What does this fold into?
Amino acid sequence: FIDELFLLSEHRHKGIGRLAIDFIEKEASKLGIQTIHLEAERHNINAIKLYNLKGFSDNGRTLMFKKLHKN
It folds into this structure.
């Protein structure tokens, strides 16, 4: 599961995100990982477009969480 993968605004739209996804897929494959799950906020259209272009798809589920302790 990929969580908190992001680029600072000055580094966006330069192909770095695409390279990062390619690297993650290559390394995950070497480790025998068969599926990659990731999370994208619904309003982050550019990230969703990138993930779709890289072959990711919406699994029709809602990611949920519950914090057990307040910091």
Observations:
- The chain has a mean pLDDT of 91.
- The longest helix spans residues 16-30.
- Residues 23 and 45 are 22 Å apart (CA to CA).
